[in-house]
Every structure is written in C-alpha cells, then in structure tokens.
Amino acid sequence: MYMYILNFVYFGTLASAFPQRGNRNGNGRQRATAQQQAAQIPQGISTASDGGTILDDTVNVNGLPIRFRIAAPANQFIAGAGVPGAAATSPNGTMGVNILLHGDGGQSFFDFPNQAVQANTMGVALLAPDPNLFWGGGQGLERTDGVAHAQAVNDFILTELPQRVAFDSSAVVFTGVSGGSLLMSGFFIPAQMQNYPNSAVLLNCGAMPPQVDFVDVATVMPQTTIHFQSTQSELRLLQDSIPQAVVAYEQLAVQQGLSADQVNTLQTVDNTPAGGHCEFDGQDFVSGVQVMADSFSNVVQPGGNGIVQGLGAPSNGQVRTGVVGNERLQFVGGRKRSGMPVEKRWVIGTDEP
Fold first, then answer.
1. Which residues form the signal peptide (predicted)?
2. Which secondary structure element, helix H or strand E, spans residue 34, and what is its range?
3. In total, how many domains does the chain have?
4. What are 293-318's pLDDT values in tens digits?
5. What is the pTM of this model?
C-alpha cells in the first residue's frame, strides 16, 4: 500500500497562498502550482482504512483532468478496471456512493475522510481540475469556473464511475468541504441535482446561495436532504454566505409548497462547536473534517439520529436542527479574511507494494 509522509502548511490568504506573476523560488524558477505538485503524488492501488481497496487514477472529462479516488470492497470494482479481486460484471450494484469535494488546496482529497464504507455507502473523492486546486476556480466566493466544474463532476459520476465500480445510481450522496461546499451549494445542487433522486448533501464549513438558474426545482427540493455544518468561529467571509445559503434554500423549498415541518425534516443547520474554520472537533481542520465524515450517515441519511460523535464543546453532538426559525446563526469572532484559507498538505513519500 502507499505510505505517505505528510506535511501540513496553512496559508493565510489566497493572495499569498499561491504563486503570482513573477513569484519565483530562490533559484529564479517559477514555482510549481498546487496542481503540478499534486501530480507528483503517486496514483494506483492502495488499502482503505477499513480494509477495502482504493483506486486512484485520472480521467479526462469535458476536457478537464479529473483525478479520483474510489474506495470500495475489491469485488465491487468492475472486472478489467485494474483492481486485484475485481469481480463486478455490471455497473448496477447495491452500494450507495458518497462523493466528496475537498476544500481549497485539495487536502481532503488526499486525506480521503470518507474512504471507509458507511451505511452500505462507498466513498469517492474528486480533485479539482484547477491550478490552485480550487473547486469552481476563482477565489473566495467568486467561483469563475463553477458551471464547468459542476458539469464535470456530474459527467464523471454518470459516465466514468460506472466503468470502474458497481453502485446503486439511485443512492448517490455528497459531501462538501469548505470550497467544495461552495461549488455544491452555488452550482452543483441547482444545476445537476435533478440527476440524483432522493439524494443528500453534507455542506461542511461553506455554503452560498445558488449562483445559476435552478433546474427542475420542483423535483429537487422535496426530495433532497441538506445539512449545513459550521462552527462558532467560522471565517468572516462565510459568516455571511452560509446564513444566506440557508435562507435561499429554505425559500426554494417553501416556494415548492413544503410546510415548515417538511422543510425542517429535509434541511438542517448547526454551528454549535466553538472551533475555527472546519474545526468541528474544536481542535484541527483535518480531525474536524474526519469527525463529520465518520457521522455522515447519522446526519443526512435515512434513519440517522443526528448525533455526531466527537463534536467540539459546547455542542451536545445533536446537529439536526431545522432551518426554519434558525436561519440567523450566531458567530463569535472569526478570522478576517478577504478570501478562503488554503490547506495544503503535500505528500511526497514512498510507494510500498
């Protein structure tokens, strides 16, 4: 399996995080982009945290390079996909799929927090096809490539994923982290969610109102579960956009004739942990995102009790609070940033069989 040596570097702002024009290293050479650095990290086959198999590869979708990681029992991979033990002969499987879109910089792609099978749902993570590894491109709340990236995610799921693993196409759900949540809420849900009946979306530490026209809103809103998860000391930029997204999606549901009780069943919100951006456990970005990933099924899938184990104080762990009447989240402080933080944890290590 792959053994990774991890280094965590936290960059303050988008303006300083990545090379600008004329930004060179000590040898006078132009610094590599985050995308170029990520390309140095080996692809291939490795072992998931629950003993399953991870396939890490890249495919071209609509002219964009989409690197992906699929974690599933080996026998669920399509025979011929290059995975030892692959036995599926049809893309029509019985397991659901949880698609994760990482935050700016790509850290959660490489951490792959949703890799363990949960509630009969396998994990998939996609890497943003952007030089800075920003889902939607651009910066901050200006996601200039949001339309193209959302389309690429959709087309990967519908056309490329079935060629590699067997899954239940009626049980596709989603996780967003920071910038990935911006793409999900701003572009993917309004433009693509009609393709995923009875789906669920966990929006971690990021959200914004729809940025494009909503396709088939009358079908999507009554059957899509959305949970907005933040913290008390969220970034100032997101302290505005997350509540705006909560209100926008609530209004869309009401406009389709849903009652307050129906809206509260489908749409929930929480920011009770005292941590900073994505620090849901009150300690760290990485461990905080993992805490939410470990309780995904509890939060948004049918039968879940809404309890997140390991959530930071003063939260009691129950996060499923209906959005109606709780749109105005209360924040305390938070870093003043003009843009989103970039978490970069590059991985240049050894490749052991």
1. 1-17
2. helix 34-38
3. 1
4. 999 999 999 989 999 999 999 999 99
5. 0.89
